[in-house]
Amino acid sequence: MFDKAKRVFETPTRYQNFIAGQFVDATGGNVISRESPAHGQLVSHYPASTRADAEAAIAAARESFETGQWTFSYGGDRARVLRTVAGLIRQNAEELALIETLETSKPLDAAHGEVMFSAELWDYAAGAARILAGDSHNTLGEGMLGLVLREPIGVVGIITPWNFPLLILSERLPFALAAGCSVVVKPSEFTSGTALMLGRYLKQAGLPDGVCNIIAGTGDPVGQAILESDDVDMVAFTGSTRVGRAAIAASAGNIKKLSLELGGKSPSVVFADCDLDAAVDGVIKAGTINMGECCIAGSRLLVDARIADAFQVRIAERLQSLRMGDPLDPSSRIGAIINQAQFDRISTLVRDGVRDGARIVCGGDPDNHSGLYYPPTVLADVKPGMAVAREEIFGPVVSVMQFETLDEAINLANDTEYGLAAYVWTNDLSIALSCSRRIRAGRVWVNSALAGFPEMPLGGFKQSGNGRETGRYGVEEYTELKSVHLQVGLQSERWVEGA
Ligand code: NAD
Question: Does residue 295 have an active-site annotation?
Answer without folding.
Answer: yes
